[in-house]
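User: Sequence in, structure out. Go.
Assistant: Echoing your sequence, followed by the C-alpha cells.
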Amino acid sequence: MSELATLARPYAVAAFKWAKQNDAMMKWSQSLKFMAAIMGDNEISIVVNNPKVGKQKVSELLLDICNGQIDEDDASFLKVLVQNGRLDLLSTIAILFEGYKAEYEGYVDVQVSTAYEFSEEAYNRLSEKLQKSLGKKINMNVAVDKSLIGGVLVRAGDRVIDGSIRGQLQHMQKALQ
C-alpha cells in the first residue's frame, strides 16, 4: 500500500488543490469514488489493462461509461491517468483525497469494530470520548466483528486503539512467551 500511496499522492494532492480552489470538494469526492468503483469492476479492468487496447480507446471507453456522471474537469483528470498509465491508482487516489478533505474540513474518519451492536447511548459516549481524545470532529463508522469477543477496536488515520478482548489476549500471549 505504501508504494501505491507514494505513486498516488501527487494525483490526490492535485485533485484536492483543484477541488479546494474551485470550491468543489463534495463533487470531486463523489467523482473520484465513482471512477474508482468503475476501475474496481473486473471486466472493465481486464479491458483497460489489455496492452492491445490503445490509450485513446481506453479514454473513450471510460468517458462513455462515465457519461453524465463526471464533468469536464473530472474527464481531464481521468485522461491524465490514462496517458500516464495510472488508472490502477484510482482507488488509492480516492482514499488519499478523502483524508485531505477530512483534514481540511476539520474532522477525522474513525473506523470502529465492536463485538456487539452499540446502543445509541454507547455510540454517543464513544463518539464524545474520541472527539476529545483526537481533538477533532469525527465521522464514525461502526462495524460488528464477532471475532473480537468483546470490547472495541478503533482506527483513526494511522492511530489504532485496541480495547478488544482478542487484542488483550494476544498481548498477554506475547508477554508470556
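User: And one key feature?
Assistant: The radius of gyration is 20 Å.
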